[in-house]
C-alpha cells in the first residue's frame, strides 16, 4: 500500500488554477491522457469527449484570466455516469437497448455543473440499466481482478485512480456508496429531493438519488453546493434554498451524539471490516463524539421492501422494453423486472408500507436518543472478484448483491442523507468504508462528521496501484 499522498482534489486543482500555477487546458489534458493510459485496464469510461473538454478548458482559462465570472468549479475536470443525459452524446445506460443517437439536452445536474464552470471529460461505465453492483467491464484500481462496485462503478474507478476529482453517480439502493466504499473514496447520497433527477434515466422513481463520488469530503460538499436546489422539472426537489455545505467542515465532532449500528442488517460482516468499523467508532469517540448503541429491528424489512419497490417501479418504467425486446435485457435483470411486472399491486403497496415503517423507526431513533447522525459499516465486505457470486461470513453464505445492498438500502428507503468515507483496509489491501447517515436535509452535519474523521486519519490519502501518474 502506497501513501500517504493526497489525490488531486477539487480544492487543490481550483487553488492551482486561481493562483496561475496551472491552466485548465493542462489539467484537462492530464485527465484525458490518463484515460488513454488507464482505460484499457479500468474500463471506467464509455465516452471520452476530448475535443469538447479541451474547448471547455480553453473557455475556462479565458474566464480565469479575466478575473470575472469564474464559478466554483471553473476549469475542474469531472465525469458523468452514463445514465445522465449530456447534450451531444448518447445515453446508453450500459444496455444494448438504448440508442446510439446523441441526446439533445443536458440533465439538470449537468447543466448546473456547466454553469459552475466544470469541464466534462466523458461518461462513465454503469451496471446495465443502473441495476447491479458489479458494473462490468469496469475494474477496481486497487485490484483489477475485482469489481469497482455499482451501479456507478466507472465513476468510482475514475475518481479512485485520480483521473478526475469528482464524478456523478446515482444511488437507488447504494449505487454511489457501494463503489465509493470498495474504491476507497468519498461518496454522498443526498437527501431524497435535494438534487434534481430531471434528465436522468430512471430505475425506481421513489428511490433514485443523484450525488457525487469524490476524492475528499470537502469535494463532496463543494459538488453538492453546485448540484442542490429546487427544479420545477423534478417536483419532489426541496423548494428551500440549500445551506452552505462547507460552513461546518472544520468544526469537528465534539459534543455530537452518534448512534452506532452494528446489528442486522449491518451484520454479519467480514472480520477485517468489523475491526475497522470498531476502530473508526473509537476514533470518533476520541474526537469528542458521544456514542449511543442502537438497534432498529424494523430494518430487517429492508431487503424485501427495497427489491419489491425496485422490481415494480423498474418494470413500469421499462414496460415497453420488457414487452417488445426482452432479449436485450440480461437474464438476471430481466427476471427482476418480469417479477415486478406480474406481482399484484397489493405486493407493491405492502412494500411501500414497509418503507414507511422503516422511515418512522429511524426517525424515532434519532428523536428518542437525540442523535445528530448514525454510523454503520458502509458495506459488510470489501471488493468482490469480478466473477464472484457469494461471500462467506464464518460459514454463512450470502450473495454479493444482497451483502452490499442490505447495509446501504435502509437510507434509500428512508430518504436520509448518507456519506461513505474510507476507514481502513483489509488484509488484501482493499478499502473499507464508514457510513454516516443524518436527519433528512441535514447534509451539513453528515459532511461535518465525515470531514472530521477524514482530517484526523490517513485512509483517504492512500493511492491504489492503478492510478494517474501526474498528481
Overview features:
about 475 residues; alpha+beta; 15 helices; about 40% helix; about 15% strand; disordered N terminus
Describe the overall structure.
- The protein is an alpha+beta fold.
- 38% of the residues lie in helices and 14% in strands.
- The protein is built from 15 helices and 13 strands.
- The strands form three sheets. The protein has an eight-stranded mixed beta sheet. A three-stranded mixed beta sheet has the order 1-3-2, sandwiched between helices. The protein has a two-stranded antiparallel sheet with strand order 10-11.
- A hairpin with a 2-residue loop joins strand 10 (390-393) and strand 11 (396-399).
- The radius of gyration is 21 Å and the shape is globular.
- The relative contact order is 0.15.
- Mean pLDDT is 96; it is low at 1-6.
Structural class: alpha+beta
Looking across the biggest beta sheet, what order are the strands in?
Answer: 4-6-5-12-13-9-7-8
Please indicate the percent range of residues in DSSP E strands (runs of 2 or more). 5-15%
**Radius of gyration from the CA trace?**
21 Å
Unreliable runs: 1-6
What is the H/E string?
A: HHEHEHEHEHEEHEHEHHHHEEEHHEEH
Shape: globular
Q: What fraction, in percent, of the residue positions are helical?
A: 25-40%
User: Average pLDDT, to the nearest integer?
Assistant: 96
Major sheet characteristics: 8 strands, mixed
Give me the count of strands: 13
How far from one another are the termini?
17 Å
Q: Provide a count of the helices.
A: 15
